[in-house]
């Protein structure tokens, strides 16, 4: 009987412990966690990429449920042995999903030591672990584990590896972005056969060639004229996906941080996002000088309340050519001042070198190149500036009224001679003397 009662008490205690543990699904990470050890370890480059990809919370949730195994590349593998273009691709704000996939491929939600078996990482990347029978080294996906069991904690283990593990999906994303295959021109459709002896057709344009008409003629007319956009040169077959590219760069502005007001004006306050996507679809290239939120906050209500003023302000910040931070800085270094055409007709934005950077505009309506190359895809370039640009008011030159100069007998103006008005009596006397050719003797008659 006593044994039966003790079993019931043990069952009740176990149920109480189970209910209390299930009520708090995410336990607090203690100081002896494998994540704390990773942040304090010598894998500084890996830690930097994890923070850059916003994966700390994801790893904390995983550690609270499972033991984890991290295959950590050393700093040399991430600094020197990694392709610079590939690393630049991973650090771009628009490619954060590729960076997260790459990093999570090195984390397995279980604790493993050694052996020959297959595991699946958090990002569903298959890892094959084996031990080399010849050398006895521990290998993962045919890469040597240089420091097995480098850091061990109750909730996980870190193995040091010599090279970074790159999933095929991330490689495909990099190749597609590098070759611009998602936005390059498609093959033109075959034209119907025609009798060239009767009708001679011009050769078709190559896909991706620049449009024939100027960008100002392709711009849609203002709301007061007509709501429909003007016909563009591209025809019904658009070679570029302008909608996708404009959405991509606006999403990049939001992820980058500090340019929410600019994105809001492009999408909500005006229809410039739609207009830009149509222009890009027809083959035009654009460079956007994007003021940050601090600069946009300085705009007064009067400057934005006038009809059409937001559109005019934004049109002055869009250059109808593709420029990067390097190209603009080289131009101002070489030529001093460079005037760029803008989508606001008859107004140009002046760029010049100042304090080792590029300065746009003069006076209060000026700004410096603050965040270079926020978004560059070959069609749209976004450069962050720290001020809202306004065109300088043209000052009218005051033309001085020309004074009437005295004219000599030969019809030429006299220099340094003050013409005095003579009396009528003196003129009559000089005329009479002139008839006798004696007027030259008197200085008053000369």
From TrEMBL:
Primary location group: secreted
Biased composition (Pro residues): 224-234
Pfam families given in the database record: Fasciclin
Keywords noted in UniProt: Glycoprotein, Proteoglycan, Repeat, Secreted, Signal
One term under GO cellular component: extracellular region
Gene3D superfamilies per UniProt: FAS1 domain
Signal peptide start-end: 1-23
Places the protein is found: Secreted
Spans annotated as Disordered: 183-239
Biased composition range(s): Low complexity: 214-223
InterPro entries per UniProt: FAS1_dom_sf, FAS1_domain, FLA15/16/17/18
FAS1 domain: residues covered: 30-165, 246-374
Family designation: Belongs to the fasciclin-like AGP family.
Role this protein plays: May be a cell surface adhesion protein.
Matching PANTHER family: FAS1 DOMAIN-CONTAINING PROTEIN (PTHR32499:SF22), FASCICLIN-LIKE ARABINOGALACTAN PROTEIN 16 (PTHR32499)
Protein name from the UniProt record: Fasciclin-like arabinogalactan protein 16
Gene it is expressed from: 11413216
